[in-house]
Amino acid sequence: MQFMEAQSDPPYRPAPTQIEETPVEVPWRTTLRRLFRQRSAVVGMIILGIIISLAILAPVLTEYEPTTSLIGAEGHEGIARRAKPCIHLLGCPEDQPQHLMGLDGNSRDVFSRILHGARTSLMVGILVVSLSVTIGTVLGALAGYMGGWVDNLIMRLMDMLLAFPSLLLAIAITFVLGSGLFNAMLAISLVSIPSYARVVRASVLATRSLDYVEAAHSLGASHWRILFYQILPNAITPLIVQATLGIGVAIIDAAALSFLGLGAQEPTPEWGTMLGRERGQIFSAPHLVLFPGFAIAITVLAFNLLGDGLRDVLDPRLNRSDRSK
Amino acid sequence: MLQFTLRRFLLALPVLFAVIFITFVLARVIPGDPCRAILGEKATQAVCEQFIRDFGLDEPIPVQFALYLGQILRGDLGDSIRFGRPITLMLAERLPLTTELGISAMILAILMGIPAGILSALRRNSAIDVTTMIGANVGVSMPIFFLGLLLIYFFAVILRDTPFALPPSGRLSPGVSPTPFYDVWEWGITRESPNFTFYKYIASHYMFNALITGNFATLWDAIKHMILPAVALSTIPLSIIARMTRSSMLEVLDKEYVRTAYAKGLENRTVIIRHAFRSALLPVVTITGLQLGGVLGGAVLTETIFGLSGVGLSLYEAITSRDFPVIQGFTLVITVIYVFFNLVVDLSYAYLDPRVRLN
Q1: Alpha-carbon distance A95 to A85, whole Å?
Q2: Alpha carbon distance A113, A119 (integer Å)
Q3: How far is A90 from chain B (nearest CA, A)?
Q4: Cα(B350)–Cα(B289) distance, rounded to whole angstroms?
Q5: Could you tell me if B320 lies within 8 Å of chain A, comparing CB atoms?
Q6: Which residues of B fall within a CB distance of 8 Å from A298?
Q7: Which residues are bridge partners to B125 per DSSP?
Q8: Whose CB among B59, B87, B154, B293 lies 3.0–4.6 Å from B77's, allowing a Cys bridge?
Q9: Distance separating alpha carbons of residues A33 and A38, to the nearest angstrom
Q10: How far apart are CA A10 and CA A2, in angstroms?
Q11: ∠ CA(A182), CA(A255), CA(B286), 5° rounding?
Q12: What residues in A contact B157, CB-CB < 8 Å?
């Protein structure tokens, strides 16, 4: 019996060692972590967060409509056009209605127009960049991947677009299409396409001749598959940086066109339009110029800070010593 | 180098042709009736038909284009429909302002941007560096039209009765006369003289004109009027140039040949200026050239704010009044200047970096 028991002893196995759980490094998580360590990017994201929240909560934050004139409204009997800001906490008499940023030339509440203008500007920035990135990516990918006359044709077209100073071309196109925010957005998108096309083309050219692409080709993958799954993902990084910075540019360009009267039309609340209409009042009612202007500057600054931070974190070429900004 | 130059020059020609063509098409495609836009709503049908015949608008488009091309090659840009004046004369009057404004802005941007960038790179992460880069970030984010208004507000309103006040608009104060050099020197040039347009063009560079005739009061007045617009227009290029110079210098300062130079015992200044700066200059040259488009476009906004009748503002007014000979002519000239300057930047890049021209 002892013999049987000895035989039924399990064969020698060393005691199991503690297998250490090494956390899996997911690339985008690393990137995000590095992004949050970038001071300027963090500042940019905070400002952007505030602006986006204000834009979303606009109807809640103010009791006045952005397009309704307050002439003859109750409580506003004696109120003048272009009234200066009246903030009760800062000493404005209680019997006067509170207007955090004053009234504009049509006796509309400026604070409300600024908040709703944030919606307009953010929408413009995102839509313009989305359109330009989409078209630019298609053109750049075709040019880079197919090469030859296709590449030549597309790049000559881009050169022709780039031959004109961009704002002048945008002005001309907007005028051809007719004034209005939508047409202004189309014009700015058109003018912005070449920069994205170039970025994508450069990426595609760099990855097209790499070994793993050849391998995929030998395995019988179709061109589309290779383009979408192997090549284009490499273009995403520089595109993200370019697009983030591009949103700021789009917002400024749209404001410039609106300033000249070609973009957003009354009564749409848009920061550039507000500046354009009231620029003559810089001497008598400077608040009408300062608030929209600073709104544009702060929003664009936020996008620029974020874009710079993304560039520092995402660009693999960088062994730059100024990384510790 | 010569081969490279020739090749680049030849490549620019189709671009120029395309620019002429696109401008022609755009000017024709603008909606609205040019006759009524210029002659007014009350223009009769007969008057409009005569108007259309006079300006050749009834010919088929390809014919119009061929005629236009022939005209340009002879140096004739046509007449403004709105003012009835030769466009070359209008250009001669307005281009100088835009040129002076653009040159002033670029000089400011380069003279302040490059040293700021170098200083930031040399004193990395110091107070100077941080301040400069924050300033550059803010500068790039400011819309020109808002910055112009801010400058006007500060220098013309807040500093109004101080010696630091600056005029908010115009090229010269009222009463200050920019007597053309040909009148000062009594050359007898009149409107009927053969090269009047050319002399007028030179004389319309008020600062240059005042300088060569020794009229320093006018020169100072013109400079005072140019300061605010030039500062407004230069801010974005200045910020971009400063940032690019800084990052370029940082990259170069890390390189081994710079370390070698220091190891050889060369003075700090020699290393920086003769070795580091020259290599760091290359991307800065490219970026500077790229800013020109922004300066030309920004000129429209700056001229609008400061009430300066330059090419930018006139182009904008021509667009809104559908004066398409002016639209064609001015856009063409602006774009030709732009293409030419891009060519110069390309060539200087090739001159500075032998790798480019030997590619």
Answers
A1: 14
A2: 10
A3: 23
A4: 13
A5: yes
A6: 141
A7: none
A8: B87
A9: 9
A10: 15
A11: 105
A12: 282-283, 286
Q: Which residue has the tokens 């390309």?
A: B346
List, in sequence order, every residue forming a beta bridge with A109; answer none if it has no partner.
A103
Q: How many residues does chain A have?
A: 325
3-class SS at A109?
Answer: strand
Taking CA atoms, what residue in A is nearest to B333?
Answer: A164
Contact call for residues B13 and A163 (beta carbons, < 8 A) = no
Contact A103, A109 (CB under 8 A): yes
Q: How many residues comprise chain B?
A: 359
Contact assessment for residue B180 and residue B209, using Cβ atoms and an 8 Å cutoff: yes
ipTM: 0.82
Phi, psi of A297 (to 5 degrees): -60, -45
Kindly state whether B19 is in contact with chain A, defined as any CB-CB distance less than 8 angstroms. Answer: yes
Find the CB nearest A304 among B31, B125, B140.
B140
**Per-residue pLDDT tens digits for A122-157:** 999 999 999 999 999 999 999 988 888 898 889 888
Residue B335: closest CA among chain A residues belongs to which residue? A164
CA B108 to chain centre: 13
Residue with tokens 């140096």: B75
In DSSP notation, A28-77 reads: HHHHHHHHHH-HHHHHHHHHHHHHHHHHHTHHHH-SS-TT---TT-TT-T
Task: Pick the closest to residue B185 from B209, B221, B201 (CA basis).
Answer: B209
Q: Tell me the chain B residues in contact with residue A176 when contact means C-beta distances shorter than 8 Å.
A: 26, 29-31
Task: Give bridge partners of residue A99 from the DSSP assignment.
Answer: A86
pLDDT in tens, A201-230: 888 888 887 887 888 888 888 888 887 877
